[in-house]
Structure formats: C-alpha cells, structure tokens
Amino acid sequence: MISKLKQKLSRTREGIVGKVKASVSSRKEINEDLYEELEEILISGDLGVDLSLNMIEEIREKVTDLGVKKPENIIKFFKSAMLKTLDGESSKVQPKINDSYFSPGIKPYVIMVVGVNGTGKTTTIGKLAAHFCRHNKKVLLSAADTFRAAASEQLEIWAKRAGVDIIRNQPGADPAAVAFDSLQAATSRDVDVLIVDTAGRLHTKSNLMEELKKIHRVLGKVIPEAPHETLLVLDATTGQNGLNQAKQFTQAVGVNGIVLTKLDGTAKGGIVLSISNELGLPVKFIGVGEQVDDLESFDSTEFIEALFQ
Ligand SMILES: Nc1nc2c(ncn2[C@@H]2O[C@H](COP(=O)(O)OP(=O)(O)O)[C@@H](O)[C@H]2O)c(=O)[nH]1
Ligand SMILES: [Mg+2]
After folding, report:
1. Angle formed at CA 167 by CA 165 and CA 172, multiple of 5 degrees
2. Is the whole-model pTM more than 0.85?
C-alpha cells in the first residue's frame, strides 16, 4: 500500500521532502540561510505561505528548545509538523471505501459530486462506483451534467466499466430533473448508493451555483437528508486556486469533504496540507492516476510515510 503510494506520489516526494533532505544534508550547521531555503521549498510545494511560515517557526522553536545542532536532525521535526497539520480536527482518519463507509440503514446513500470542469469529477465517480461495487453495493449513477453531450457519454463509459446502471437524459435537459428522476429510480430499484455527477461550467457561469443549489434542493425533496454527502473535487495541479473554488462551492451547496485528484502529476502535493489548514474540510479521497484503481481513501499517516520513507 505505502509502496504504491510512494511511487504515485514520487513527484511530491522529490519536490518537497527530497529537496528538504538535500538542503539539510548540504549544510554543516543550522542557520538562517537554511531556514530560508526550507521556507521556499514549502511555499513552492504549495503548502501556502502562512502554513509554511508557521511550520518553520515551530521547527525553529524545537531546534532551540532541544539544542539540536545537526541539520539532518530536523527532518523528523518536519515530519511531525506535517502530520500534526493533517491530523487537525477536520482530518480525522477517513472511512475506507468498504462496508463501513455507509451508516447502516441509510439507503439509498446519496453522494453529490461538484467541482470545476476538468478537475476529475466524472473519473472519480467511475472509480468510486467500481469500488463500491466490489463491496457488493448496488450503485446507480446520475448524469446531471447535461450541458455537454460528451459529459454523460463519458459517465456512461465509466458505468459500463464498473458494471453499474446510469440515469441520463438528452443533452440540455434540466439537470435538477435528472437528479430527481435518478433518486426516485434509486429508491424504487433498491439501490445502496446513488452518485450524482454535475456540471462544472455553464454557458452563463454565474448560474452554476444556482443550478447546483437547485439540484441539492430537489434531492432533498425526495429524501429530506439527501444528499447525505457532497464531495468537492479539486485538481491538485491548480494549487492555491483550488482553495478559492472550494469557498464558492461550500457557500452554495455545503461540502462535506474534498477529493483531491491528480496528485500523481504534481510536485505540489503540499496542497493537501493547505486544504486541511485553511478549509477545515477533510480530504476524503485522493486521485493518483487515470485508472479505476487510482483512488485511495486518504490516510494522513500513510500519506506522510509515503513522502518520507
Ligand atoms: N493523472 C490523473 N489524471 C486524472 C485524475 N483524475 C482525473 N484525471 C483526468 O483528468 C481529466 C478530466 O477528468 P474528468 O473526470 O473528465 O473531469 P470533470 O470535468 O470534472 O468530470 C481526464 O483526462 C481524467 O483522466 C487523477 O487522479 N490523476
Ligand atoms: Mg465530467
């Protein structure tokens, strides 16, 4: 498990931890120069300016308090500072994608997936569907991204691959109506989990949030608690921009958790820490590739081990 993650996160491993290790081992003593260099590494790894500065400050205090002299001895402080950031209130251990993911008695469990176009919503839904299926859950997908024909076709391909059903309508159909029909179908077909795909951009951008609110509301008309979970998909390669997107989506429909995709393609995986620090939302899943198995439940300990081991 860790070795797979290690390989998938190799760019961030090299981009942050690799650079920290190199910087530390090239020096004979701990001095201001070193702290500055470390700070730059963290900022360029997308941990965010505030978090990077705080982390260096914390490390500096530990070095002074414990009288640490050798530069390489501060690597373990990095590791613990990162783990501490990830283990804040919002990032408790996340449920694995298995039976324990769902609270007993909730059926259908409704997951609404939101996010900007291209972040990886449809791909993530396909991966989730396949995982849930493997745990003997009956899954239904809802193609409520009706603005591009290609969007529901792509979801259909994933549905076939995962061996699950899909509810789709003509391109241009009212997405809230598709969501409504899907939830009714899920109820009558005894489905365990319904996953609703949504648009990330409309012709008139300002209406996107209204459209998502409408979908959210309509789901709640069929089952008052639905959606039980709203996942926001963020693309790790877009860095700090993602945090602003997150705030908009959260204001519109509320968000229970983040799926951070494309961590395999970036050296700036420090964004995971930034999200935990700034949004107060848990990272529930990480996407580490385009294949069906390239989705992992996020586990802070595994993540940090994969970067430092
Ligand atoms: N490398 C990589 N690519 C991904 C990942 N998740 C999605 N993608 C790719 O990102 C592109 C956009 O994904 P898509 O699911 O269509 O995004 P959507 O517009 O939000 O539905 C596709 O080419 C996906 O294969 C990931 O975790 N890693
Ligand atoms: Mg899509």
Report:
1. 150
2. yes
